[in-house]
Amino acid sequence: MTALVAVAAAIECAIEDILDIEDRRALPQNDLRILQHHAPEQHPAEPPQRAVREPEPESDRVLAAAAESARWAQWAEVTNVGDIALEQILADVQSLAAGYLTGDAVEVFLEVRKLRDKVFGLLEGHQPPRQSADLYVSAGYLCGLLAWISSDLGNLRAADTHGRTAWLCAENADHDGLRAWVSSTRSKVALWDGRLRDAVNHARRGAHSNATGSVGALLACQEADAWSMLGAKSEAQGALTRAEHARSVMVGTDEIGGLFSCPEARQVNYAAGVHLRIGHPHAALLETQSALHLLAAQPVWAYGTEAQIHISQAAALLACGEPDGVMEALVPVLTMPAERRMEPIAQRMMELARTLAQSPAADASVTSVARRTIEDWCLDSAARHLALSSGDGPA
User: Fold this and answer.
1) Is 103 helix (H, G, I), strand (E, B) or coil?
2) 14 close to 39: Cβ distance less than 8 angstroms
């Protein structure tokens, strides 16, 4: 063992480092005790000491919190749109709503879609809540325009989708005027889709909004229109009475105007259509004459409204026993270019053709000519042209 100790000292290592297991088994007990005596003392490794952060003084914590609030305020104050830009967007919406009454439907559709995409892009960015609300209002009216135009072009499913998105925008903006106009748009889409009860419900929901301007009169007219198609005469007449009352107590002006307004000529046109369906052709004929005078006095000549007035006038003449006046009443409609022959107008013309075929004067030469002329006219409508187009049409 003495020799082992000397060797370990000479090579500067522990004795156990030069012994293997067999060597240990061969050592006498006395030598093993000596080996254990020379073994270095083992100490368990101590965990590293975690750095202890000195607590901040109370005044430093208060100042740090204030700095954090200031940094957030700087972020919240930043916006991706200014008030002037918001005013311009709303002005553009007003221009498009007015332009649709006289312009090309597809061209206006594409412009509306372009502006809608811009507004959606801004909403995906950052702005204060007040500006976000203004953007939602513009987006809602733009989606409402897309819904109205889509239905006029014969795509009711797309129109319904735009209508739902417009309603979401109205809810996010908490804007009663937009709620009312979106309800009017959705009522129109539902009516032409044959969902007449939905048309009534949308009109009534819009009427419950605290909206200013002429939308109350239009909503009541739309409800009357749906009731008349359901054959509910008293309900239809009651809704027309409410439309007159809404006109008499109207306050404020229409925020957007154009398509989102109900001039008196538009209201009287609805009344004429309703009276035709509930069996009051003489009242309808008087209303069409009044509507044409009112339309002529408007600053904007809405070709869609004009066409529907003339169709109602022709139908009223037929119902009053004056089939010879049908073609004369329809001249402004029959001379419309194809791109202005919207789907609701085409459908009303087809309805008139069916009425002609079922009238007592169906076999008369003038009636047969009128019916064939109308049927040929309907084959060349805006919706048909769009369906046959190979380009990128509205959706």
Assistant:
1) coil
2) yes
Contacts of 157 (CB under 8 A, 6+ apart): none
Amino acid, res. 297 = A
Contacts of residue 41, Cβ cutoff 8 Å, sequence gap at least 6: none
Q: What is d(CA 22, CA 68) in angstroms, rounded to the nearest whole number?
A: 70
What is the chain's Cα-based Rg? 40
What residues contact residue 73 under an 8 Å CB cut-off, 6+ apart?
Answer: none
Quick one: 390 exposed, middle or buried, by C-beta within 10 A (0-12, 13-18, 19+)? Answer: exposed
pLDDT computed for residue 51 by the predictor = 53
Residue of 199, 207, 205 lying closest to 227 (CA atoms):
199
Residue of 325, 192, 182 whose CA lies nearest to 259? 182
Task: Spell out the alpha helix ranges (H) of 124-232.
Answer: 129-152, 156-173, 176-192, 196-207, 215-230
Q: What residues in the chain have per-residue pLDDT under 70?
A: 1-57, 387-395
CB atoms near residue 314 (< 10 Å): 28
Q: What pLDDT score does 151 carry?
A: 96
Other CB atoms closer than 10 Å to residue 29's CB: what's the count?
A: 7
Tokens 């979401």 sit at which residue?
168
Beta carbons of 230 and 250 less than 8 angstroms apart = no
Per DSSP, the three-state class of 260 is strand
Instruction: List, by residue range, all CATH 1.25.40.10 domains of the chain.
Output: 83-262
The pair phi, psi for residue 55, each rounded to 5°, is: -60, 140
The structure tokens listed for 24 are: 């240990």
- What is the token pair recorded at 294? 């009112």
pLDDT at residue 32, rounded to an integer: 60
SS (H, E, C) 112-134: HHHHHHHHHHHHCCCCCHHHHHH
Measured CA to CA in angstroms, residue 232 lies from 158, 183, 319 at distances of 29, 21, 20
Cα-based distances in Å from 121 to 80, 115, 116, 155: 10, 10, 9, 25
Domain formed by 83-262, architecture: Alpha Horseshoe (1.25)
3-class state of residue 257 by DSSP: strand
> For residue 34, what pLDDT is reported?
60
φ, ψ dihedrals at 199, nearest 5°: -60, -45
The tens digit of pLDDT for each residue in 241-259 reads 999 999 999 999 999 999 9
